[in-house]
Amino acid sequence: MLKKVIIIICSCILVGYCSFAQNAVKINLNTPTLRESVIIGYSRTFNQVHEIEVGLRIHINSLIMPDDQESIYYRRMYASNFAQHFGLQLGYNWYFLPRLEHLQPFVFYELQAAYSTTRNHGYGWAYNVNDGTFIPLKEYLDYFGPFLWLQNTIGVGFKVDIWKSWYLYEKIGFNATEIIGNDEKLVPDPFQSFPWFVNEFGYMMMAGIGYRF
Q1: Where in the chain are the domains?
Q2: DSSP-derived secondary structure letter, 4
Q3: What is the pLDDT of residues 157-193, one digit of tens each?
Q4: Of the candidates 208, 77, 91, 104, the residue with the CA atom closest to the CA atom of residue 155
Q5: Residue 17 class from Cβ within 10 Å (0-12 exposed, 13-18 middle, 19+ buried)?
Q6: DSSP character for 187?
Q7: Which of 119, 156, 184, 208 is most exposed, with minimal Cβ within 10 Å?
Q8: pLDDT tens, position by position, 49-99
Q9: Does the domain at residues 22-212 carry the CATH identifier 2.40.160.20?
Q10: For residue 146, is the peptide bond before it cis, meaning its omega torsion is within 30 degrees of 0?
Q11: How far is CA 181 from the centre of its chain?
């Protein structure tokens, strides 16, 4: 009897809690450490304060190198087959001023997960003893991996209503990305306890549109 009462009470609490929930679908373009992607997602907001997100991450390959620092991983993710274009996004947003009518600022945590190779492009250099400069010897192009990429981002964002149930939103934050994997062409770092576990630090900027229902 007591067990049935507990189940009924818990069910009533759950129903009451979910009655204040709101659903939304959204699409965005984001520029993180993993490089550019489009995320198509779904979210559910509880009590106008807590929002849970889940989405499909679709990676956009780019031949343009973001810098010339000869990095192995940082913004070098490049899908080498169809499956590597797809990943997962999970997120949580906390709205700290829920009573504002058309503008909702929030702080967030987000995880983006992907499994992909890298694309590395650059030049081999040699020292010119005549004038003390370095000269390019040979252009190279190489791929490493695939690796498991786990990007953790914290930051701030906001939503702004634009028309009926439609809204725009933006996020900006800093992240740490764990890259896990092995490639025989790479020499492991002897100073790391786990040589095939690498951390990269960066930022994320995201902008998108959503629809509540």
Answers
A1: 22-212
A2: H
A3: 999 999 999 999 999 999 999 999 988 888 766 666 6
A4: 91
A5: exposed
A6: P
A7: 184
A8: 999 999 999 999 988 777 767 788 888 999 999 999 999 999 999 999 988
A9: yes
A10: yes
A11: 18
CA-CA distances (angstroms) from residue 168 to 31, 57, 156, 160, 190? 17, 19, 15, 5, 47
Count of alpha carbons within 13 Å of 107, Cβ hemisphere only? 3
User: What pTM was computed for the model?
Assistant: 0.81
Short-list 83, 197, 208, CA closest to 150 = 197
Nearest to 95 by CA among 197, 199, 37, 24: 24
Q: CA separation (Å) from 165 to 46, 70, 85, 169?
A: 17, 46, 31, 13
Beta strand 197-212 pairing with 50-59: unpaired
